[in-house]
């Protein structure tokens, strides 16, 4: 391993070397016939993805493919291959450099199963919305098939599925802690987060003859190793976040008998360390102590420890989240049996110039012609939208966007965004003049960053807006107002809608932004996400209290009236989130009824890998604070009956849930909420001729709850 973690820059090539001879392809090739038309005898890189091939900047495989193409590499796409054998993975031959394997834009398990572990029968990333076109745990399955097809071809895995499984992680579908996806996939390298820089560097190194095993110094990468190289300082994770009295974790590289924690245990084995604020060793302190942060690695508890000890799991999750700021994050290492999974620090965010370059590749902005007239719902939804930024500093504990894209906002330039809108207008015959979205992970974080690069590089807050908006955060959304106005005034543009999730606690910091949004960019309804009304659940979600919502609603109503428009807010809420009691859900239901909200669809908490709320769900501890045996306990609704009750309370108006709500109200001593009045939640009896829905209470079998395995050839 080299002496320092590298941060390569994007190489702004604009035309592939082979284009001079063969001409630029309208799409990346997906078959031998298409390769032949280009005059290719082989591909340098083959991308395997679980999504249909849509050549649009909102689809990850298209972005990576076009970026690599611009570096002069011949890139092929194998989209949604039949994984029952290795033959489909041989369609383009053996790649000269490597296979790039991704599950697609979504995690394959979340794509395939509901929050109640029921099998889905649709897939928005597949032609015809057809389900079952990708395997469960697609990254693992695809990687294994690539290895079967060409055992010597290097395999590089990525996408959100690999990114969120880079260390030992709780797997909701099997209800156990699984080891890093690197080991199960047998991949050579894992790229996490937005990986343009890393994938370019990997391709160029392999292209000049370097071995895949020699690439160990790139940010945003993870790999398997046998030992810690010479010159590195190993710090036990308990030095980063004091864990309290927990069974000691044996490290094969550190003499733990000489540490202060072990001396304390020897002197008084029953002592429990006092709960205190997290003690962080940042790079400045590390240098003063004689250690180089660039050559320091933090040892997380072993896989064998976290899979059997939920408290250690919560501790490991907390440390990982504290080490996600690219400005001060250190490498992490976690032992799995006789192997080590090594995580280099997160990638440095792309500059505006680099992000513009990525989004200005020659995308066709359409699905590949092989799909004919079949509709791909995910494409239909975003075909006339423009992604203006990446990242999210909200830090909501149930969301994994921050762990994937980072907390530092990466913004495109005003000019580049306008240019893309003009491209949509001029290239798309179906364009009717309506831009469906200007946004990203969050609608109104464009150009919002820390006021001080020095503070930003040292910060370890999990959120810039919780429990309150950081005073160092720039919250001025005036530039976004100017962008909205310039785009809506373009010739041929009739309407610009904002469909991305809105952070309303930020929006109210710039009232003029709310006025612009409400007056010109709402199509009758605006979706926002308070997520809950009660302080207990909100504190576990890292969401603001309802005072921000009330201020925003007042502004929304005021500016809608001034514009002479009848518009409505559609609030989203989460059922069964960790830390939510039946009483909390009852109070939320009463709030909904008091505000005349009737939710047609409700969202139940989904424990996605690596999210802080998932660590709460599995461990019963709160990783947003210091973790110890005696630290705060978090109760979660895990049984199907209680999860259904929480969903029923969100849909208090649906007779299907009334029996369970009445039963819960009686058990809580709230019989006073049963009746026919405005202050009652549900009536005492079911409607006349009411019968339960077909299938009510029937257990739906999945591959993880009893369904026989799929047949293999």
From TrEMBL:
Q: Which InterPro entries does the protein's record reference?
A: Elp3/MiaA/NifB-like_rSAM, Methylthiotransferase_CS, rSAM, rSAM_horseshoe, rSAM_sf, UPF0313, UPF0313_C, UPF0313_N
Cofactors demanded by this protein:
[4Fe-4S] cluster
Mind telling me which PROSITE patterns this protein's record contains?
A: MTTASE_RADICAL, RADICAL_SAM
Q: What SUPFAM superfamilies does its record include? A: Radical SAM enzymes
In its UniProt record, a GO molecular function of this protein is:
iron ion binding
Where do the annotations place [4Fe-4S] cluster binding? 392, 396, 399
Q: Where is this region: Disordered?
A: 691-713
Record's keyword terms, sorted: 4Fe-4S, Iron, Iron-sulfur, Metal-binding, S-adenosyl-L-methionine
Question: Pfam family of this protein, just one?
Answer: Radical_SAM
Q: Does the keyword S-adenosyl-L-methionine apply?
A: yes
Is S-adenosyl-L-methionine included in the keywords of this UniProt record?
Answer: yes
Cofactor binding, per record: Binds 1 [4Fe-4S] cluster. The cluster is coordinated with 3 cysteines and an exchangeable S-adenosyl-L-methionine.
Q: Which Gene3D superfamilies match?
A: tm_1862 like domain (3.80.30.20)
In this chain the Radical SAM core domain maps to: 378-656
- What does the sequence similarity comment in the record state about its family? Belongs to the UPF0313 family.
Classification via NCBIfam families: SAM_YgiQ (TIGR03904)
What is the name of the protein in this document? Putative radical SAM protein YgiQ
The species is: Zhongshania antarctica
Organism ancestry: Bacteria, Pseudomonadati, Pseudomonadota, Gammaproteobacteria, Cellvibrionales
């Amino acid at each position: 391993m080299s002496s320092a973690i590298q941060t390569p820059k994007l190489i702004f090539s604009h035309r592939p070397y082979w284009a001079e001879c063969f001409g630029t392809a309208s799409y990346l090739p997906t078959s031998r016939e298409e390769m032949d038309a280009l005059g290719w005898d082989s591909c340098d890189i083959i991308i395997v993805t679980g999504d249909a091939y849509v050549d649009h900047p909102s689809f990850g495989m298209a972005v990576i493919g076009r970026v690599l193409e611009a570096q002069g590499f011949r890139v092929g796409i194998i989209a949604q291959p039949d994984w029952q054998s290795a033959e489909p993975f041989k369609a383009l031959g053996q790649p000269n450099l490597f296979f790039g394997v991704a599950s697609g834009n979504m995690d394959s398990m979340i794509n395939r199963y509901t929050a109640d572990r029921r099998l889905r029968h649709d897939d928005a990333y597949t032609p015809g919305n057809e389900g079952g076109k990708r395997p469960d745990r697609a990254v693992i399955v695809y990687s294994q098939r690539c290895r079967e097809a060409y055992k010597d071809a290097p395999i590089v895995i990525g996408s959100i599925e690999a990114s969120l499984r880079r260390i030992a992680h709780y797997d909701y579908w099997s209800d156990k802690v699984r080891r890093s996806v690197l080991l199960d996939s047998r991949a050579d390298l894992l790229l996490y987060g937005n990986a343009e820089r890393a994938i370019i560097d990997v391709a160029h190194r392999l292209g000049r003859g370097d071995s895949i095993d020699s690439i160990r110094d790139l940010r945003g990468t993870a790999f398997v190793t046998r030992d810690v190289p010479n010159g590195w300082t190993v710090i036990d994770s308990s030095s980063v976040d004091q864990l309290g009295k927990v069974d000691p974790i044996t490290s094969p590289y550190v003499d733990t008998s000489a540490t202060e924690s072990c001396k304390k245990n020897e002197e008084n084995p029953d002592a429990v360390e006092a709960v205190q604020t997290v003690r962080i060793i940042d790079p400045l302190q590390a240098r003063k102590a004689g250690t180089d942060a660039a050559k320091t690695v933090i040892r997380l508890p072993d896989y064998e420890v976290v899979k059997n000890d939920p408290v250690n799991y919560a501790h490991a999750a907390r440390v990982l989240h504290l080490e996600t700021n690219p400005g001060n994050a250190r490498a992490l290492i976690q032992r799995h049996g006789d192997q080590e999974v090594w995580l280099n620090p997160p990638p440095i965010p792309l500059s505006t110039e680099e992000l513009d370059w990525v989004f200005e590749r020659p995308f066709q902005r359409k699905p590949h012609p092989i799909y004919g007239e079949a509709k791909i719902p995910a494409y239909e939804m975003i075909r006339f939208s423009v992604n203006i930024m990446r990242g999210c500093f909200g830090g909501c504990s149930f969301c994994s966007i921050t762990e994937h894209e980072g907390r530092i906002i990466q913004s495109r330039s005003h000019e580049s965004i306008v240019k893309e809108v003009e491209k949509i207008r001029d290239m798309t015959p179906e364009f009717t003049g309506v831009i469906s979205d200007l946004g990203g992970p969050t609608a109104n974080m464009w150009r919002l960053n820390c006021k001080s690069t020095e503070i930003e590089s040292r910060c370890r807050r999990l959120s810039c807006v919780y429990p309150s908006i950081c005073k160092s955060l720039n919250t001025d959304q005036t530039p976004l107002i100017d962008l909205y106005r310039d785009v809506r005034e373009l010739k041929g543009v009739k309407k610009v809608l904002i469909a991305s999730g809105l952070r309303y606690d930020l929006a109210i910091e710039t009232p003029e932004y709310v006025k612009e949004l409400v007056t010109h960019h709402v199509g009758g309804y605006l979706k926002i996400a308070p997520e809950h009304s009660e302080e207990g659940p909100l504190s576990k979600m890292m969401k603001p209290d309802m005072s921000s919502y009330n201020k925003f609603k007042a502004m929304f109503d005021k500016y809608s009236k001034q514009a002479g428009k009848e518009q409505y807010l559609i609030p989203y809420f989460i059922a069964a989130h960790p830390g939510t009691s039946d009483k909390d859900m009852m109070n939320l239901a009463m709030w909904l009824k008091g505000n005349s909200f009737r939710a047609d669809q409700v969202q139940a908490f989904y424990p996605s890998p690596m999210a802080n709320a998932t660590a709460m769900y599995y461990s019963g501890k709160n990783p947003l604070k210091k973790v110890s045996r005696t630290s705060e306990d978090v109760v979660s609704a895990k049984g199907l009956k209680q999860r259904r009750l929480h969903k029923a309370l969100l849909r208090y108006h649906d007779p299907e849930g009334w029996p369970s709500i009445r039963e819960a109200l009686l058990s809580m001593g709230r019989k006073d909420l049963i009746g026919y009045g405005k202050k009652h939640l549900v009536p005492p009896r079911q409607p006349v001729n009411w019968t339960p829905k077909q299938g009510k209470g029937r257990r739906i079998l999945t591959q993880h709850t009893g369904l026989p395995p799929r047949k293999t050839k």
